[in-house]
Amino acid sequence: MTAPNTTQYLRLKSDTAPKLGLRASGGIHYSILCDADRQNLFVMVTGNDGGGYFSKEITPMSNILACLPTDGTAFSGKTLAKACVSRTANQPGFLMAITRHEGLTAAASDKPHQHVRTGDVEAWSAALLALPGEPYVPVFIGEASAPVTQAAVDPDPAPSEQSAAVTKRTKRVSKRAAATGDASA
Asked: What does DSSP assign to residue 142?
């Protein structure tokens, strides 16, 4: 068993980036975090309006930027696969949507489905690191890490929060049962 990451984080920003696919709808919810020393930025996908899979891994922004070409050449969203620990096929595209929303990449003018690096990374980083932020502590369960917000681990949620959680779980179970044909799922 590996020791969980003990880095302390501050959540600087939470936002929603529009999906980049031509037929995609909805958005990708994300948070931008920094370490307690305010030296490094991190990105974490926190939700997907389409209900598809995503990883809650905390990805160092330096890993994402290291994958992006600096010479102006166009690249695909798959370029960010090297920045991801998880192997979900959606994560690189979701990270690309986030970099586009943050102004660090833009659509390539001559190639559909391609991107180019843009923006002033130093100014963007400085502006984010100047934000006040709030403490964010990932919760680790067993060997797998599962970053969650404090509201998700509150032992006594308000009735409206509890109702929403039950409704969400019921929908998830119903979808699984419909997909497998198993009424007990």
From this structure: T
